[in-house]
Amino acid sequence: MKTWQMIKLGLILAIYTIVGCVGLAFVYNSTSKTIAARQASDLQSALREVFPNATSFTPADNVKSSSSAVTFQSAYTAQGPSGLLGMAVQVEGSSYGGATVLLVGVSTNGTITGVKVMENKDTPGLGANAANPSYYVDKATKTTFPGQFTGKKVTDPFVVKKDVIPITSATITSRSIASLVQFTGKAIMTALGSGSSSQTPVPAVPPTTAERPAAKPVTSTVKGVDILETTVTTSGANVISATAKAKAPSYDGFATVQVTVSADGTITNAQVLEITDSQGLPVLAPDFAQQFIGKKTSAALTVGSDITAVTGATFSSRGTAQLIKATADALFMALSGGGL
Fold first, then answer.
1. Distance, CA of 286 to chain centre
2. pLDDT by residue (tens digit) across 225-277?
3. Which of 28, 47, 297, 338 could bond to 265 as cystine, CB 3.0-4.6 Å?
4. Is the per-residue pLDDT at 27 higher than 60?
5. Same domain, yes or no, for 148 and 58?
């Protein structure tokens, strides 16, 4: 290729690159403004939710966190027709799956006026139910997990399974959020001049809890079941649970699931990730897999007795149930044998 041709191609490539960069910058600028506007709107809606009687909100900068693990992103005083109602703080702390962001409102008398989960990265169908408005810890009163904090005093114990109802199979998430609400509530009372000048930081997640790949492969004794990958959750030197993705033939295709089993043989999570059966699409609905959560691996877990089939997809339900059962059995056997 001649020199002038190389120069020409180089110039053309440079022009395309510049145009692409300009385009990306334009898209980013437009998108970032839209996202910022949406976040501001969501925050205003959340503020009105935790302080429904407020007439205005004013930014505040006098709320301080005494823990490096807890960040107060923003704070607002809530004003009503007769004066100061209290304060709301947007707080970020750790939970099972990563950062969790809450908006916590506290009245001047130390009562929590509301808690709104703004962001949560915990396991779908388990810890993520903290932000699910249709998940109730008390079905009779239709009380959501964050909704139960409304009306509590910041001086209450905030102990899961005592004065805090946990999310089913998501104890770590429940403890994390409860601790974060209490910590933020005490900080707000300090800022309002009605609380102690010191806070006792409560770690949102036990610092020794960690997740890592399994030290050895996990296999199933059931023909056709392929364990794709396995991870374990540890607390200190102890393995407390194991999670695996597995794939196996189903009715006229195949199914892929993800299952978590605790060291005592309890299924703490089950999800259908994929199913290619011609009539199997309804099995992907979370309600089917959630039937397995809380059950022991020692149970038969058969469709028709322990598990209800999805209407119109009985054969796919059976195949997927058998895969979840086989995966759970393999995990519990590996946990019992040690060395994971």
1. 15
2. 999 999 999 887 788 999 999 999 998 999 999 999 999 999 998 988 888 88
3. 297
4. no
5. yes
For the whole prediction, is pTM greater than 0.85?
A: no
Report the number of distinct structural domains present in the chain: 2
Ranges of beta strands (E only) in 131-249 are 136-138, 143-144, 209-213, 226-235, 238-249
What angle is formed at CA 324 by the lines to CA 160 and CA 241, rounded to 5 degrees?
A: 40
Q: CA 210 → CA 29, 97, 241, 322, distances in Å? A: 38, 11, 11, 30
68 and 114: one domain? yes
Q: Can you read off the two tokens belonging to residue 22? A: 């300009």
Residue 77 backbone phi and psi in degrees, to 5: -85, 140
Greatest CA span in the chain, whole angstroms? 83
Quick one: CA dihedral 254, 260, 262, 267, positive or negative? negative
In a domain, 15, yes or no: no
Return the closest-CA partner of residue 205 out of 121, 317, 143, 271: 121
What mean pLDDT do residues 160-170 have?
91
Residue 248 sits in the same domain as residue 121: no
Cβ atoms < 10 Å from Cβ of 197:
7
Q: Are 175 and 86 part of one and the same domain?
A: yes
Same domain for 253 and 184? no
Domain that holds residue 160: 49-191
List, for residues 102-149, the tens digit of each pLDDT value: 999 999 999 999 999 999 988 888 889 999 999 999 999 999 999 999
Q: Are residues 84 and 142 in the same domain?
A: yes
- How crowded is the C-beta side of 121, counted as CA atoms within 13 Å? 10
